Amino acid sequence: MSFAPALALPHPEAKTPSAVKNELTLAQLKAAVKNPCNPSTQPECTPLEQALGPLQRTFEEYKIYTPGQQAAAIAIMAFESGGFAYKTNLNPTNYGQGTYAQMQYPSIEKYVSSIKALSSKFQALVKPGTTVTDGAVKNKVLKLVTSNLDYCFGAAPWYMSNKATCDPAVFDGLSKGTDEAYKTYLSKCINTGIDARMQTWHDAIAALQ
């Protein structure tokens, strides 16, 4: 996944041109994530019952309100993490890559730095104005968010609602809930392949609409 470098800028008030605010339910989440992880065999797995609360809270925090926007966030995480199985990238040389969105460095650094509660811990690892090149430090930065489920699930909502990483018009367009809107999001905001990621989108949007 190729999350582009980002600045931690807030997105303006979300628009809901074609859908009302959705209150995500467990039934919707179970229908959206067809192949959830298994905590008995996958140590980083978060079962859907435990994922619901963090998703609800981060959707509210980052104004991911409409079914289309929520489906997009769920779909990208379900695909990238294997049904919420992996919050640390399986390739050990991909330093600092993770969360359930599998966000790459340096975007993960921008995300961590946007969280006020992590400010002192982040600054202890990364001095202002410096560029992190040490893989071990990148992994420590990632650990600040993977150790907390709200932060781990919040990466995708933060990224998609941040006008520095995703054009507000593309973000707002997700409210249409169409394949074209999701393809535009993947190509213009995530900078990644499309075809392999459409099935999790179809599952998620069918569950939420």
TrEMBL record:
Name of the protein in question: Uncharacterized protein
